[in-house]
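HUMAN: Would you supply a protein with fold tokens?

ASSISTANT:
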Amino acid sequence: MLVTILFIFCIFYTSDAFKVTKVEENNYGMRNITWECEFCLSGCSLARYFVNDFYWRDIYMLGAEKLCAFISSEKIEKICDKYTSKYLPEILDGIGSVFVPEEICLDFNICNSTEIKMFTIQKRIENQSAIMLKI
């Protein structure tokens, strides 16, 4: 029974005809963004934060050091330490520089360009409102 309900839900959820749109009335007019698009943009923005934030970069470096410490061969452990300390920051920089949430969601056809523009404008408005509240 549960499997049947989940199957039907998946069929309706994945069909473009049944995409749920989120319409909000605010001071700036209508905003019409699908839940899928907003989820994709928010999730990718969070992932980009985890790649670019210095705290998380330190966590990744610490994790790489601990991973190298598990290697039984001392020679290979030193090589591992050398390569992770040299290349992991470069890899994270590379991922962070090409990881653009708007392009990813657009390339996977989760969002269209209009939704991305609306999402970006809404985030700017929210950021400006937050700054004004602090003042």
The chain has one domain: 33-134. The first helix runs from residue 2 to 14. Residues 35 and 131 are 26 Å apart (CA to CA). The radius of gyration is 21 Å.
